[in-house]
Amino acid sequence: MSEITHHTGRLDAAGLRVGIVAARFNEAVVDRLVSGATDTLLRHGALASDIAVAWVPGAFDLPVVLRRMADSGRYDALVALGAVVRGSTPHFDYVAGECASGASAVARETGLPVAFGVLTVDTWEQAVERAGGKLGNKGGEAALAAVETARVLESF
Predict the structure, then answer these.
(1) 18-25+34-154 carries CATH number 1.10.8.60
(2) Which of 6, 7, 44, 91 is catalytic?
(3) Which end of the chain, C or N, has fewer beta carbons within 10 A?
């Protein structure tokens, strides 16, 4: 009987080039997500010179820049960061849905890891809790997911 092969990713960002695309809308929260992501990457061995952050107006705009970064061949992994807070209109559903489907399409179509660190929350307080508050920093978690996925892909 043969052994099962397990492919796992290391949480080692050394040598990885990571692109972060961040939405400026709700910048007070997104800024904290970006800090969480960059701090996490640096703590896990990335060099500051291997991290690039591109700012776009809002979460709806993330996929087009993610795609351009993916197509550039300069990055080993990408991280999408933003905050979409539900309001009293259906706008939330369109922005959050298109942002998520666009980011996942970039990953599928290019084979590059795209970690989704876009908060989709009902209230501003929930966003703050997830951007360095009592629920941690989802920007840092997304950065780790990008690193781990990139390392898994290297194993093939």
Answers:
(1) no
(2) 91
(3) N
